[in-house]
């Protein structure tokens, strides 16, 4: 390749991806004009750059344009496609489908021909295998997910995986298999592995390490790997592909030395053999995006190391990045890509310009030094990407990296190579299982002493930047040792001196979490934390609550308004994962002896913030669940918040004897259903801000149009978790500002000084 072209190529690729993701007006015209100018001036490099930008922008735009139109949400579609993945999760089987044909069952609907990939839930389906072709009747919806600060962004994950719709398989008509799966060596290998007498965990880790079957790792495996900072070791990564390439290269050069002793250094075929070995390993792993990325990085690395008309290390780095993004533009949104390239960049920085180690002692010290310097850089990068830090990672990786790369991966691959000799294969994998158990026990012991750390939101950025600065301080050659030591001590003080800001007395932070069609409100004062409801539990067993907070949280009080699943579905998860001092609500829905009934008249004060229960009275025992909802009023200074659960209109009127308007923030009763938010209550409370806690595209039509219009007439600024994501208000301390929305910028709220919109 011409010298110096790798960096411009990578920048052109990145520019095209950025323009495709956020296309400005006149993008096509601008690209066409730039191309004409480059052609007129005969700048071949500029022509190539403009074409690259156009190609990448169009690739991203095609993925965006293929997403399911909103008008097809919730209607019956006939879909044919090949199964890319089949994962059983309790009662639900999750299917990844490569779409070959899609059409609405009713001809007057919009077409869905541009769908390429969808994700489906199937309940009690017939046996299915990856690679089979099926016909389904499905109901889909556009890609979406819950939006909460600091929580997993499912919508972003769908985007970077190229999934253009999600939904479920209709049981009638029943799914129909169109053709069996073609021969797939990877599936055959997994089937062979299933018949081996291996313990469960070593079997899962062997599948992940050698076949890239990371979907076989359990939640417990992922938790242990994340907490110990060893996730990169248990899936197909650049380390493993490079290891295979390196072993094959050494063997090839050894053979060349025997065959041509005088010319073995000039032999080219060992390098090609190493490339073939790395490619075969990545193909065996299914060539999924992580394996493809690792293969490209390994191939470019072989070219750089060969020295034959090869680019330098940094040119190779930019070239590998450009090729990865050219083949898979959506990988630009995958944190793993940037973590991988950051690690390689750090390795180049650490080794470039330094002499090669000599002898075993020199190489061992070089590996230890590299790991110690790489640890803070990767710790800071992971902290920025995932807002967590594994303190055990530097020590664990000193042992785990050579153990996995030097023993576990070779043993696993050797077992596959010797599969025709069952006894030898079993011996290799028996030793693999023993070493895996030992490594797992080591990880568990280290994590018990140094558990995963989740910093406060205000600490994440300063701690991450301090770790990155520390890595650069010791990685850049030529700096004075005394300067490094003094700067290291100063950087070490950052986590100790930096304190996350706390609420002052007389203020309360209210966050209405996005939990779909349900309710979960978190209230914080300076030293007090309360939950109102716990959100739903879905048919798959998943509760949105489990994705909201990292680690173990402590709550002073949890109020469960009533026993419906969309309000009390997360109670069991909350009690299992977190610490709760006291529950208020229906005893049948709550655990343990810390439960007290929710009765009107109870009040308490924390940090100059007043809490008061307005409903239900003691006489409400015979009422339906909704009408026995706990109603909570929170008062701080001139601001008031009212949470009324699913209380109906008839009993709302009785509250008017206890509360009057105006109210600063009101949570719409029963998710904005027409059974709540009666005219008398709306006129009496005149809320400044109104929140509907609803699921996007929910089947109930919440909020009801008449409720939306009712609140519009009194001038309420209306918000919806289904559209805006989680909403965070801060009451007290002066004038009430609008909320922070997790989906900032999509819409500014209805009737908030903008064009009003009605519920569809």
Quick structural overview:
InterPro entries: ComA-like_MBL (IPR035681), ComEC_N (IPR004477), Competence_ComEC/Rec2 (IPR004797), Competence_DNA_uptake (IPR052159), DUF4131 (IPR025405), Metallo-B-lactamas (IPR001279), RibonucZ/Hydroxyglut_hydro (IPR036866). It contains 24 helices and 23 strands. The strands form four sheets. The chain has an eight-stranded mixed sheet, with no helix packed on it. The chain has a seven-stranded mixed sheet with strand order 15-16-17-18-19-20-21. A five-stranded mixed β-barrel has the order 1-2-3-5-4.
Q: What features would you highlight for this structure?
A:
DUF4131; DNA internalization-related competence protein ComEC/Rec2; seven-stranded mixed β-sheet; alpha/beta; 44% helix; membrane; eight-stranded mixed β-sheet
